[in-house]
Design goal:
The complex is a heterodimer of chains A (395) and B (252).
Chain A (H helix, E strand, L loop, with lengths): L35 H13 L3 H18 L7 E4 L4 H12 L4 E7 L5 H14 L2 E6 L2 H14 L6 H18 L3 E3 L4 H4 L13 H11 L12 H10 L3 E3 L9 H12 L12 H15 L4 H10 L5 H9 L5 H15 L3 H9 L11 H27 L9
Helix pairs in contact in A: 3-4, 3-10, 5-8, 11-14
Chain B lengths: L4 E9 L2 E6 L2 E7 L1 H10 L5 E5 L11 H8 L6 E4 L5 H9 L4 E4 L2 H4 L2 H10 L4 E8 L7 E4 L4 E2 L4 H11 L3 E6 L11 H8 L6 E4 L5 H11 L3 E4 L1 H4 L22
Parallel strand pairs in B: 1-4, 1-12, 4-5, 5-6, 6-7, 7-10, 10-11, 11-12
Antiparallel strand pairs in B: 1-2, 2-3, 7-8, 8-9
The chains are: A mainly alpha (395), B alpha/beta (252).
Chain lengths: 395, 252
């Protein structure tokens, strides 16, 4: 296995979680051997999580507000569905609390049959309108190949960016101001920043495509920094993360959506998409030395949904079932039009940082932060005057 | 008792999966390879892929694409579009396709059917009997995705195809394509009762119940549909593959 930095130093594992110093330059440990992510998690819970009866009350309050503000509209909110646990649970909450969401699905050409059937069942049971955005596959394949050739870590940036762009666009089109997002701290709160990239970095996507792609991105759904600002501040579209209000428990959620919505489990986290499971199960560990399960399991430990021993036991299991890996690999290579040798070349190419390519982060972010700091008292006043408020527990 | 065959028909335009209404207004559905993989995982009875622009644009079958699709599909696969000669049919079979579907070529060269039947067996030769009602007169056979109509009685044409070597007929009312207005039971019945080979009802299926009922009412051995298997709740904005469970399909 090619790993980033355990060749030069000993592997050190956090004493509270299962995070370690493999492929993560940002991890630090305190005198008790507890990693920074554990404290970061607690800090996030402190800031963004409510929970308990108070959380339930606040969530219902937000839902009541969404219903009230949207009562004369066709839809009072919008939410994405992938067929995975969190998005499915989010749709379930909409049904339970009488919201009328437009449910959006992004078809990036990698849906598994399970994801497909889960969405079918969810829509049948809830009776919501489903809008599918089918990404132009030829264009998207070219973009994903560019990301592989660019040797950057976050292949999923392409799909994640697109779904945000599609949801924003539809929200604007239908006059919807609430975007419900299934992100939640209690099962997703820990994720090293070295393992992912900023999802709104359209400049990064565009630049990587320009350098490595063979097609122009003509139809790829995207949202620039300016457009996002427009959606947020002019169209007043805001993100709400209801799962951060309540004591969201993964196992209980799975049990509930299986019973209520006929949802089927597909194994690992995000394994409903074939490219995602191949990426997380093969590309990330083999090329980048990253085992994302460590972050997922550590989050569950930190939120008390699992013990450290259970997590260590689970990490002993292979990430990927060997037969499934073979089958998926063949399928992925076929979809990409890659030969075995071309794929090997990509896997063995030296790792690059997202910032090795033009990026909003390098280009604007530092200035942006400074500017925002200096003008923040003024923007607060402007926001107040415009009536922009943030209901959400987001960050 | 044998279960009625319920067949998804996927239409391809230059390598892209599309769904049309009356063969016009193509709506992009996605990557055909992934769609076939999903259908295959849903344990379909059989699947049909039609390249709807090949004949119109004078293209030969895209064998690379056919190979990629066929290798994702373990159920019987029928392919149609651009097959004009025995050599082309052979190339299509070589990609792993079980049945070739002929439409435009029969207008000029009906002996092609027998040639293929002699080599591969008549069960692997399917004629897509595309039917259209012109402004005046009765139902007529048509070709090249409903743009060329000929003056021949539809039942007589069907019988002619049977004697020319066809092993199966897709009776496709093209005026109903993508309209959800229901399968044409009258047309299906008139053809099914006049020929001895299996008939597949196609064009305008409204639901799986419609397909089931058409099969029992007309003597067809199967029914095929596109839109209801790629659109959720008959909504062209809700693109989502579906296929009935065995319990939803009648036995006959």
């Amino acid at each position: 296995m090619t790993t980033l930095n355990n060749t030069t130093q000993d592997v050190r594992v956090c004493t509270k979680t299962v995070m370690d110093n493999i492929a993560d330059p940002d991890i630090t440990f305190d005198e008790n051997g507890v990693c920074n992510y554990f404290y970061q998690y607690q800090d996030r819970v402190e800031k963004f999580f409510v929970g308990g009866e108070e959380g339930q009350r606040q969530m219902e309050e937000v839902f009541a507000k969404i219903r009230e503000e949207g009562k004369n509209k066709k839809y009072d909110c919008i939410t994405g569905v992938s067929g995975g646990v969190d998005s499915t649970y989010m749709v379930y909450l909409c049904k339970k609390y009488g919201l009328r969401p437009l449910v959006v699905h992004l078809d990036n050409g990698w849906n598994s049959e399970i994801a497909n059937q889960n969405i079918n069942n969810i829509i049948d049971k809830c009776g919501f309108d489903l809008h599918t955005h089918v990404i132009d596959w030829e264009e998207f394949r070219d973009l994903q190949l560019s990301f592989l050739k660019a040797s950057v870590i976050d292949l999923e940036l392409t799909s994640d960016h697109a779904i945000f762009a599609v949801i924003y666009g539809l929200a604007q089109k239908h006059g919807i101001t609430y975007m419900l997002n299934g992100f939640n701290i209690t099962t997703e709160g820990i994720l090293p920043s070295a393992w992912r990239w900023f999802k709104y970095d359209w400049l990064n996507i565009r630049s990587i495509q320009k350098q490595f792609g063979s097609k122009k991105l003509k139809t790829f759904p995207h949202v620039s920094f300016g457009k996002k600002t427009y959606y947020e501040f002019v169209k007043k579209i805001q993100t709400v993360m209801p799962l951060n209000y309540i004591d969201y428990n993964k196992e209980e959620a799975k049990e509930l959506i299986s019973r209520e919505l006929g949802w089927r489990d597909y194994g690992g986290k995000h394994f409903e998409s074939i490219i995602t499971r191949f990426y997380q199960g093969y590309i990330l560990p083999e090329k980048f030395g990253v085992d994302k399960r460590k972050a997922h399991l550590s989050t569950l430990i930190a939120s008390g949904q699992m013990t450290r021993d259970e997590a260590l036991e689970e990490l002993k299991q292979p990430i990927y079932d060997a037969d499934m890996l073979e089958e998926d690999k063949e399928f992925v290579l076929k979809k990409f039009g890659f030969s075995e040798a071309e794929f090997e070349a990509v896997m063995n190419a030296p790792i690059k940082a997202h910032t090795d390519y033009p990026s909003y982060i390098t280009k604007h972010y530092k200035y942006h932060e400074q500017i925002m700091k200096s003008i923040s008292p003024a923007t607060r006043l402007v926001k107040k005057a415009l009536g922009i408020r943030r209901e959400n527990k987001s960050y | 008792m044998q279960r009625a065959r319920i067949i998804p028909i996927l239409t391809v335009d230059n390598g892209k999966l599309v769904k049309t209404v009356k063969f016009k207004k193509p709506n992009y559905i996605g990557d055909p390879i992934n769609a076939i993989k999903i259908f295959n995982d849903k344990m379909i009875d059989e699947i049909v892929i039609l390249d709807i622009t090949a004949s119109k644009q004078g293209r030969k079958p895209n064998t690379d694409l056919i190979y990629e699709m066929a290798s994702e599909c373990f159920s019987p696969l029928g392919y149609g579009g651009g097959i004009t000669s025995f050599e082309e049919a052979k190339k299509v079979f070589d990609q792993g396709v079980e049945k070739v579907i002929i439409n435009s070529a029969i207008a000029g060269n009906a002996s092609l059917l027998q040639e293929i039947a002699d080599a591969y067996g008549s069960q692997s030769v399917v004629v897509s009997l595309d039917v259209k009602k012109p402004l005046f007169g009765g139902m007529r056979p048509c070709f090249r995705s409903a743009s060329d109509v000929i003056k021949e009685d539809i039942v007589a044409f069907a019988q002619r195809m049977e004697s020319a070597g066809a092993g199966e007929l897709i009776v496709h009312n093209t005026d109903r394509d993508g309209t959800f207005s229901g399968l044409d039971r009258e047309l299906t019945k008139s053809v099914a009762s006049a020929v001895g080979i299996p008939v597949i009802a196609c064009g305008g299926a409204h639901s799986v119940e419609d397909m089931n009922e058409t099969i029992s009412a007309t003597g067809a051995s199967a029914a095929a549909a596109g839109s209801i298997f790629v659109y959720k709740d008959r909504n062209p904005k809700s693109i989502l593959i579906s296929y009935p469970t065995p319990e939803d399909i009648i036995s006959r």
